[in-house]
Amino acid sequence: MSRTELLQQLCAQLQQTGMTRQEAMAEARYALTFILDISVSDLLLHGTDQVTETQEEQLRQIVQKRATGCPLAYILGERYFMGMPFFVQPGVLIPRQETELLCEQAAEVIRAQGLRSVLDLCTGSGCIAISLAKLTDAEVTALDISDTALQTAGRNAEALQAKVQLLHSDLFLNVDRKYDMITANPPYITAAAYAQLEDSVRVYEPELALLGGDDGLDFYRRIAKEAPEYLNPGGYLVQEIGYDQGEAVRELLAAQGFVNIEIRQDYAGHDRMVWANLPL
Ligand code: GLN
Fold this sequence. Notes:
This protein has helices at 3-16, 21-36, 40-45, 53-67, 72-76, 100-113, 127-135, 147-159, 191-196, 199-202, 218-226, 246-255; strands spanning 78-81, 84-87, 117-121, 139-144, 164-168, 179-184, 231-240, 259-265, 271-277. With 280 residues, it is of the alpha/beta class. It folds into 2 domains: 3-68, Orthogonal Bundle (Helicase, Ruva Protein, domain 3); 91-277, Rossmann fold (3-Layer(aba) Sandwich), CATH 3.40.50.150. It has a 7-stranded mixed sheet, sandwiched between helices. It has a two-stranded antiparallel sheet with strand order 1-2. Strand 3 (117-121), helix 7 and strand 4 form a beta-alpha-beta unit. The chain is elongated and about 65 Å long. The mean pLDDT is 97.
């Protein structure tokens, strides 16, 4: 069978599981290029090349597993973020595209202001910490409460040749120095929203990385209170938030003396980040 024929078949099978044609095509293409170890342009340019029976069988099994609801990233053990392949496994949140802008903007500020040190809280796969280590000269430390997360982040840092120091810690518990910037994509889903999450997220992705307490703000409360002790004067606090949490997080930060508090949007136009500084 040719690459293109198999792509169409896989796409049709995925669509039957309830995906839109666009989603199904994106996933079928990802799986096919992953198994064939080729680029998307190679797939488009050489669509008539034949696939082996083993490859065909591997892809059918992937689609079968996908039909049970397991996210493709866990099946393949990979998700691209900031143009880099990150290893992911159950127990670690799959990097989201909406987090890329945070990395881009944070890297820009680190470079422009010559910031020397960054601490990434709730690092998970390490996607923020590793991106910042690759894009800047800052010294980056990544921490998490989960051993699976730290093991995943360590494996990613090594594979992507990023210099990142790992720390096992419940937020700042084991942190003993100050940083120029603190980044965080903490769990921020409310208890009510968590119950409503689609199965592929709620059943397969770690509750520990998603659930932010009853009102989704538990981590922002703790971070706003504790971060000042771990930031240098004028230091930056950059957090990802849920689309409706901007004002609540702004208030928490203002109450702890943060300045320049700014809610920023993602590419889709939703509130997605809160930036703030410690006063100089
Ligand atoms: N953006 C994720 C989601 O909507 C949530 C990530 C988080 O809680 N930090 O599934």
